[in-house]
């Protein structure tokens, strides 16, 4: 049987139907915004902290700390890196939580050290049954167990972390540094709290705003309107328009 011959137009149509879609020219993933990147990093830290808590509770504390201990990330906690909370209900149930400073714990090392510190507190209160223990011998014993298990962890009695502030001001007189997470300090309204006289100089780029043009007063506007109105009016005593 003789196959019918296809015209050039028919062949072109067949090729256009079977052709695969053109690949992406750029081949790059869409760029994430700065806010999206920050949220992604915060989520990664939360997951890391939870996984670390579960691991240490099992390998060091013998699952003696309640598995339901909540890890609360607090962006307003600025005076300390972490804080452990514990209470015992009338039914004998241990209710525990650990607050973590979102703006201080900005790396995995700080998360490990701070979380280990707070877990040592909970171990003293729950496992050892010593609710008044602070940083005494019981706490130090748990700290040694943690550091023997993990050489990348250091448990101390204090969280001596330098907070990374987004905005800083420096006193022009005594060089005292003030840090904030927002532009809450108004240098034109305050002076240095240490030397009581120095001007606070922003250590970040500030916008230069153009001076505002003063608005004319109402009397001046009315006078200008009257002037414009009379200049286009002919005086009947001289000639007619």
UniProtKB/TrEMBL annotation:
Region (Disordered): 1-32, 206-241
Domain of life, per lineage: Eukaryota
GO CC annotations, alphabetized: nucleus
Pfam families in the record: SprT-like (PF10263), Zn_ribbon_SprT (PF17283)
Domain SprT-like: 46-203
Family matches, as PANTHER family: GERM CELL NUCLEAR ACIDIC PROTEIN, TRANSCRIPTIONAL REGULATOR
Protein name: SprT-like domain-containing protein
Natural source organism: Polyporus arcularius HHB13444
């Amino acid at each position: 049987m003789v196959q019918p011959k296809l015209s050039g137009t028919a062949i072109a149509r067949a090729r256009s139907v079977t052709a695969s879609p053109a690949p992406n020219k750029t081949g790059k993933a869409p760029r994430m915004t700065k806010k999206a990147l920050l949220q992604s990093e915060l989520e990664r830290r939360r997951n890391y902290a939870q996984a670390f808590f579960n691991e240490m509770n099992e390998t060091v504390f013998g699952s003696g700390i309640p598995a339901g201990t909540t890890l609360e990330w607090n962006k307003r906690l600025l005076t300390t890196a972490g804080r452990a909370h514990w209470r015992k209900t009338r039914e004998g149930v241990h209710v525990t939580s650990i607050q973590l400073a979102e703006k201080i714990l900005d790396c995995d090392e700080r998360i490990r050290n701070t979380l280990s510190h707070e877990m040592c507190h909970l171990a003293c209160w729950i496992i050892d049954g010593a609710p008044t223990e602070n940083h005494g011998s019981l706490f130090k014993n748990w700290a040694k167990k943690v550091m023997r298990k993990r050489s990348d962890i250091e448990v101390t009695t204090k969280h001596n972390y330098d907070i990374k502030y987004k905005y800083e001001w420096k006193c022009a007189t005594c060089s005292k540094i003030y840090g904030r997470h927002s532009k809450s300090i108004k240098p034109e309204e305050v002076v240095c709290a240490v030397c009581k006289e120095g001007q606070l100089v922003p250590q970040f780029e500030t916008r230069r705003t153009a001076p505002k043009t003063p608005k004319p007063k109402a009397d001046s506007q009315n006078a200008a309107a009257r002037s414009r109105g009379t200049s286009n009016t002919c005086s009947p005593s001289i000639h007619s328009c």
